[in-house]
Amino acid sequence: MTAHFEYFDEWFSKSAFSNTNLKREQPNPALTFLQHFDMIGKHIEKRVILQREREFFMDRERFQSRLGFLLVSAGCAVGIGNVWKFPYVTGQNGGGVFVLFYLLFLVAMGVPVLTMELAVGRASRKSAVLGYKALEPAGSKWHLHGWFCVAGCCLLMMYYTTVSGWMLGYFFKFAGGVFVGLEGAAVNGVFDAMRASPVEMIVWMAITVLGGFLVCSFKLQSGLERITKWMMLGLLGLIAVLAVHSLTLPGGLEGVKFYLLPDFGRAMDAGIGGVITAAMNQAFFTLSLGIAAMEVFGSYMKRDHTLTSEAVRICSLDTFVALMAGLIIFPACFSFGVEPDAGPSLIFYTLPKVFLGMAGGRLWGALFFLFMTFASFSTVIAVFENLQANAIDNFSWSRKKAAVINCVFILLASLPCVLGNNLWSGVRILGRDVLDFEDFLVSNLLLPIGSLVYLLFCVTKWGWGWDKYLAEANAGEGIKMPRWLKPVFQFVLPILVLVILIQGLLP
Predict the structure, then answer these.
(1) Contact between 143 and 133 (Cβ < 8 Å)
(2) Mean predicted lDDT score pLDDT of the chain
(3) What is the pTM of this model?
(4) pLDDT: is 269 or 224 the higher one?
(5) pLDDT digits 0-9 by tens, 320-354
(6) Residue 29 has pLDDT above 60, yes or no
(7) How confident is the model at residue 59 (pLDDT cuts 50, 70, 90)?
(8) Alpha-carbon gap, residue 118 to 419, rounded angstroms
(9) Which of 106, 119, 219, 507 qualifies as a cystine partner to 472, CB 3.0-4.6 A?
């Protein structure tokens, strides 16, 4: 019983009631631990808050460490787009000029919306659907968006597992010497041949899916947290080694200058409006907010630190990887006189030629695609965990049952994207192939609409409400979200997200 009282004291000191005038009842050994909760509950109008705090300690898995939470969350944010898009867009839009605007929008948009996803998760201790249900006003239908979040995570994995499989395949090709002796068009032909083979594509995709759900079939701490922690540390180590190597290449510093030095001439050529728009879009999409991919990690958090502090750290790690990726790509491309094009052509056509031109190119190519594999797989298992949590919360499945059913579903659902690269290459949906169409639905529709829903849920009286969101966001030690930002959150941020949504729908 003494242990129960000590646990109770820890809960009370960290709960939403610690800063209120609520009179604490003295522990009575004749009462059980749960009876003490009920005794406090009689002083509270909103008993659902009490239930939430009870679930905080009793019903939910939690991260073993703060480092684990940060690395898992950053692993979800760090993705392939950080590598093949951020550096190119930066160089195209004036280098340091773009970076400054990007950081501005990351603080103004990315951090606030991230805190909202995390707040819904941490306050409810549930995944998307039940998280909304626990916090929404009685009779409202905000929880319907939770199902759209689940659909968005499924849709994202329907094509992202294919792209992640490409990275894994290229790691083994470089490590196995497939590229040795190849030049020019023959290098391009390796990627073209891989895409043309449905069997090879299915193998790499299946390895990614099976490996991801194998990790998620274990408990949170022994599966996702442990694997992601080591994988992210490996990723950070690899990116540092690769960046140092690129900087030592002849002419590499010219690439750094092009990449990061502010160039208002290039910014003016692109148009200041275009630079600002590009920075806003990059800051918004880099965190993949709006489909509850981050919300589930909030449900596993402790309440020791404010959500603003945690969001800043997650964004910092994500930005660090993006910036370092540029320090790998630009010096290498400038050293070999190669234009750093955006998209898959950069990763699978341009960079392999650059690596093959280096001394020890086989090694450097293998290390680069190992880094890319870590970056993509960390996102895969993070989103898989979201699917796991929703299945467990909504259907009361065990982790292993959820892993098996979700694995079979994602394997089958990923086949259209795989086949869209070969057997179904002639299929077009709204003028897009299967991969591009699925990416369009997620990036241009579900992410901005979902972020707008989270915004409105957290700042309007028809949803959870500003005061409750702010109390949850500011619980713990660290950076506090200022109360005076309420009008900005209510009016400015929704308008910015709407701008992003409309831009994504325009031809």
Answers:
(1) yes
(2) 86
(3) 0.85
(4) 224
(5) 988 898 898 889 888 888 777 666 677 888 889 88
(6) no
(7) low
(8) 36
(9) 119
Q: What are 429's strand-pairing partners?
A: 432
> What is the b/e burial string over 268-299, where b = at least 16 CB atoms within 10 angstroms of the residue's CB?
eebeeeebbbbbbbbbbbbbbbbbbbbbbbbb
Query: Which residue carries 């109390």 as its tokens?
Result: 471
Query: Which token pair is 303?
Result: 């309440």
> What is the per-residue pLDDT for 65?
85
Q: Cβ-count burial of 374 within 10 angstroms (0-12 exposed, 13-18 middle, 19+ buried)? A: buried
The dihedral sign for the CA sequence 53, 57, 62, 64:
positive
3-state per-residue secondary structure call for 7-25: HHHHHHHHCCCCCCCCCCC
Tally of helices (H runs) and strands (E runs) in the chain: 28, 0
Strand partners, 305: 477
Cα separations (Å) of 205 from 159, 198, 259? 9, 10, 33
**How many C-beta atoms surround the C-beta of residue 437 within 10 A?**
19
Domain coordinates in residue numbering, the chain: 25-59, 67-505
- For residues 89 and 343, the answer to whether their CB atoms sit within 8 Å is no
H/E stretch holding 328 reads helix 307-335
Is the CATH number 1.10.4160 carried by domain 67-505? yes
- The end-to-end CA distance of the chain, in Å, is 66
Number of Cβ within 10 Å of residue 483's Cβ equals 10
Residue found under tokens 């003016």: 268
- pLDDT at 273 (0 to 100): 84
E strand or H helix at 35: helix 33-41
Query: Is the predicted pLDDT of residue 45 greater than 50, yes or no?
Result: no
